[in-house]
Amino acid sequence: MASHGDVTIPSLPFLICNKRPHISVTTLSNIYKHLLFRLESENTLVLSVSEFYPAASPSGCGHDPTTPCHLLIMASPLSSKSLYAPFFGESSQRDAYKDVIIILSGFFAIYTLGLVVYRLLLSPLARFPGPKLAAATSWYETYYDVVKKGRFLFEVERMHEKYGPIVRINPHELSIRDPEYYDKLYVSGSVRPTENYVAFANGLDLEGSHLLTTGHDLHRRRRKPLEPFFSRLGVTRLEPMVAEVCEKLVVKRFENFKGTGKIVRLDHAFLAFAGDVVGRICMDNPRNLVDDPEFAPDYFNLFHTVIKSLPLFMAFPWLIRLVQLIPEHLLMKLDPRSQEFNKFRLMSERHIDEAKQEKAASGSKDTSMMGGPVTIFRHLVNSDLPPSELTRERLSKESQVLLGAGTVSTARTLDFISYYIMANPEIRRRLTQELKHDMEGYPERKPTWAQLEKLPYLQALIKEGLRLSYGVMHRLPRVSPHQPLQFKEWVIPAGVPVSMSAYLQHTNPEIYPRPLEFIPERWLENVTPEMTKNYVPFAKGSRNCLGIKQVSPFHRW
């Protein structure tokens, strides 16, 4: 026992080796007195320090036997060994770090093992078929999407071939491949509420847009002001504008390339065309991409880069947050391609700000009083949405979705159809023959959309192009938040995300014979109800594509 003032301290021996001979025992003693034994109370515990020589120590240290190199320190049992760590020498510090690493590794191993056991044996999805590795960890999906560059969709197809029509494709999600079930999963709001799978939208940095809104009611509220622009009547009002942009592309640009030997990137040209059309729908004074000598390759590269990076950001959503923390000037030096996205974002925000300023100046919600055409941005700013839904940040995300999704999907389908027209002489001959009458005198005499709709081979060509370009090729998970779903003998618990995909619907050989071949004639003869029912390039239900009535007229032009 050691005593200090009125306090009796139960003591405990510690044997400390002084491996620094230039530090005296007295100095070490003072260090311990003044630094290590000061407790939370104001009492400083002064403990006795005894010298030992190597010969008297329990184990020699190789020092000069006349030089004291050990201290026997009497300490309270309440003292923590970690307090002495800085005086134990480098090897002791390393041991302490190793102990911490071992402990943390042990906790991580126990947590991981418990999580895997839960997912494989105790989870509500444990009874559904599928590969055990995919059920145990999301790294399975990450490998196929990030390392194998977006090939998880084809791995899901392989899973269905092996395990059947319903498969657990990751720890949290089910996939169904059954032509009869699509209309039961993707339903209207009157049938049941349908929510987006929140984890599926992570990493897209478009939270707040109607497309990625999770809740059913909030999604419906955000989508409602947009629907008039994409109705049949709304699309009909766009006919003169679309005809003008199309004439500029075909007559003023393509005709000028004749006889020059210049190679024209049609993917750039079609994205510029779609970008100009969608841009004019959304805002005043878009970029006029078709006028660019090279059809604005920077705009094409912007969307191409974003699409290629989606699997990475969706697998690691925290990466997008990390990128946002990097100052813009530094980010542009690290990745010059980010400059184009920054321009795109600033363009969206500028047009939102202009629409808000016009509203404030006019003092009216009537968009006809604001001057200029009625654009989506003007309409949104003057809609009946509450102020919380009209913030600059949310409307900017909405505008990015409208500009991006409308541009890329339209351009991609035009690319696809154009390739098959040029690669197949019979398709080109038959289409030219059908268009000959209605296109005679173009551009002085332009056909109307109503006329083009009556051309059966043109309609079949567009439909087959949409079938094989799929609209959105990726799976579209949906959540029934309150009501369990029934698929054959399987009961799917409420809240579980379930997905299907246009790719699997459109490549079903039982519905579309020779499904990977481009055959417009399949839509002219022997069209079965199953073909029509499973034709889903725009999805179905309360979250289907807004542009379902807009896309086909663009393709006709």
Q: How would you summarize this macromolecular structure in one to three sentences?
A:
The protein is built from 23 helices and 12 strands. It has 557 residues and is an alpha+beta fold.
Fold and architecture overview:
This protein is α+β, with helices and mostly antiparallel strands. It folds into three domains: 2-89; 108-152, no CATH class; 195-556, Cytochrome P450 (Cytochrome p450), CATH 1.10.630.10. It is built from 23 helices and twelve strands. The strands form four sheets. A five-stranded mixed sheet has the order 6-7-12-9-8. Strands 3-5-4 form a three-stranded antiparallel sheet, with no helix packed on it. A hairpin with a 2-residue loop joins β1 (2-4) and β2. The chain is globular, with a radius of gyration of 35 Å. Mean pLDDT is 83; it is low at 1-23, 35-63 and 67-89.
Number of strand segments: 12
Low-confidence stretches: 1-23, 35-63, 67-89
Q: Would you identify the CATH architecture of the largest domain?
A: Orthogonal Bundle
How would you state the average pLDDT, rounded? 83
What's the total helix number?
A: 23
SSE class: alpha+beta
Rounded to the nearest angstrom, the distance between the terminal CA atoms is 98 Å
Helix content: 40-55%
Give the amount of beta strand, in percent: 5-15%
CATH superfamily of the largest domain: Cytochrome P450
* Main sheet record: 5 strands, mixed
CATH domain class name of the largest domain: Mainly Alpha
CATH topology of the largest domain: Cytochrome p450
Rg, alpha carbons = 35 Å
Overall structural domain count: 3
